[in-house]
Specification:
Elements (H helix, E strand, L loop, with lengths): L1 H5 L28 H17 L4 E6 L5 H13 L1 H6 E6 L3 H11 L6 E5 L6 E8 L8 E6 L2 E10 L9 E7 L5 H9 L8 E4 L1 H13 E13 L1 H4 L10 E4 L2 E2 L13 E3 L2 E2 H10 L3 E7 H8 L9 H8 L4 H4 E8 L17
Parallel strand pairs: 1-2, 1-4, 2-3, 4-9, 9-13
Antiparallel strand pairs: 5-6, 5-8, 6-7, 9-15, 10-11, 10-12, 14-15
Helix pairs in contact: 2-3, 7-9
Length: 347
C-alpha cells in the first residue's frame, strides 16, 4: 500500500498534484467549493483568539496542492484580516508534484507560506488541520484464525527470475510486529475466527508526533471511520480496505490491481487516534459528525452559502454523516468552540 500510493516515481499520490474532484477518482468536502474553507476559517479565527498570542502557526497536513488552505486564507483575509496577517502557514504534503503547485494555488496569499515540506514542522503553536489524511495511510491487514492472529501479505510472481511480478496475490503469515496484537488488546476488541480487519499503526504514530510537536493549540482532524468497537465488529468483519477509481468504489481484492493507478484507503479507528493524542497531553474537545460541525459554524458565514453546497456538506448518508470531526486541544482547556456549538454527536 505504501509503494502503490507513495513511491516517489510510480505512486498514486506522487504522480499528480490533485486526485479528487470531477476529473479525479473521489470527492471530498474541498471539492464542494470554497464554502468548506470558509467554515474552517471561522474556526481558525476563533482558535487564534483563544490562543491570545502574536504569530500563530496554521499547519495543514496532507495539503495536496493547497486548495483547502487557499480557501481558508481567502476567507480570513476578507472576514478576519487581523488573523490573516498573524498566520504562519505550513503546508505538509508527501507528493513533490503537489508541493510544486502550492504557491500557484495560493496566488497572492503565498506570502503567508513559511514552509512547504513533506514533514510536520519540528515545533508549532496554533492550529493543525488534516482533512482526509489518516484514511490514506498504509495499513496492516490482519485475519483471525483458529490458531490465532495472522497477517495478510502481498506476494507476486512473473515466472521469470529477477523480473517484476506480473500478478499480485496475498499470502497469510505470522504478524510482522507484536504491536498488532497489542493494538487490539488496548482497544479491548476480540476478533472472531474468519474476520479480517485493518490496523493503522501509521495513523497512531503520526498522531503522537503531531501532538508532541504542538507546544500549545488545536488539532482538527476530518476523516471517515468508526470507534474501535464498531470498526472491529461483525458489521465490518471483511475489513474496510477498498479502492476508488473514476468515482467508483472497488471491492474484494481490487486493491491488488493496477498499483499506482487507483486510490487505496481504509476506515479510521478513531478510538486509537484519540487515545494516542491524549497520551501526549492533548484533551478531546469534541468528536462529532461533519453535519453538526458545519451547522455550528454556519452562523459565522455572511452571506450564507449556496443551499446546494451546504446540502452536500451536511447530507445524512453522504459527507455529513460519513465524515467525522475530532477536535483536540493542548494547553487550552476544553473551550466551547463554534464547531461544537450545534450538537456534539457522532452517528
Amino acid at each position: 500500500m505504501d509503494l502503490a500510493l507513495y513511491h516517489h516515481e510510480f505512486g498514486y499520490y506522487a504522480r499528480a498534484g490533485q486526485r479528487s474532484g470531477r476529473a479525479g477518482d473521489f470527492f471530498t468536502s474541498v471539492d464542494v467549493g470554497p464554502v468548506f474553507g470558509q467554515l474552517l476559517a471561522a474556526q481558525v479565527a476563533e482558535c487564534r483568539r483563544l490562543l491570545g498570542v502574536d504569530g500563530v502557526d496554521l499547519v495543514e497536513a496532507g495539503a495536496g496542492n493547497g486548495r483547502l488552505s487557499a480557501d481558508i486564507l481567502r476567507a480570513l483575509a476578507r472576514d478576519h484580516p487581523d488573523c490573516y496577517r498573524d498566520l504562519r502557514v505550513h503546508l505538509v504534503e508527501s507528493s513533490a508534484a503537489a508541493r510544486a503547485a502550492q504557491r500557484d494555488t495560493l496566488g497572492d496569499m503565498a506570502d503567508r507560506l513559511v514552509a512547504a515540506t513533506s514533514a510536520l514542522p519540528p515545533t508549532y503553536e496554533g492550529i493543525l488541520i488534516a482533512n482526509e489524511l489518516l484514511d490514506a495511510m498504509p495499513v496492516h491487514q490482519i485475519e483471525m484464525r483458529d490458531e490465532g492472529l495472522r497477517e495478510v501479505y502481498v506476494t507476486g510472481s512473473s515466472g521469470v527470475d529477477r523480473q517484476p511480478p506480473t500478478r499480485l496475490s496475498t499470502a497469510i503469515g505470522p504478524p510482522s510486529t507484536p504491536r498488532l496484537a497489542e493494538y487490539l488488546d488496548r482497544v479491548g476488541v476480540r476478533l472472531e475466527p474468519g474476520w479480517r480487519a485493518e490496523i493503522n499503526l501509521n495513523a497512531v504514530d503520526w498522531m503522537r508526533e503531531a501532538a508532541r510537536r504542538l507546544r500549545r493549540g488545536f488539532i482538527v482532524l476530518i476523516d471517515y471511520g468508526h470507534e474501535a468497537r464498531e470498526l472491529y465488529s461483525a458489521s465490518h468483519s471483511a475489513g474496510t480496505l477498498t479502492t476508488f477509481r473514476g468515482h467508483r468504489e472497488g471491492g474484494g481484492r481490487s486493491w491488488l490491481e493496477d498499483p499506482g493507478e487507483q486510490d487505496i484507503t481504509a476506515h479510521v479507528d478513531w478510538t486509537s487516534v484519540r487515545a494516542a493524542a491524549e497520551d501526549e497531553g492533548m484533551q478531546t474537545i469534541g468528536f462529532l459528525d461533519q453535519t453538526y460541525f458545519v451547522l455550528g459554524l454556519l452562523p459565522a458565514l455572511t452571506p450564507p452559502p449556496a443551499a446546494g453546497a451546504l446540502k452536500t456538506l451536511v447530507m445524512p448518508g453522504g459527507l455529513g454523516s460519513t465524515m467525522k470531526v475530532l477536535i483536540l486541544g493542548k494547553g487550552v482547556g476544553t473551550p466551547p468552540l463554534m464547531g461544537t456549538s450545534f450538537k456534539v454527536r457522532a452517528t
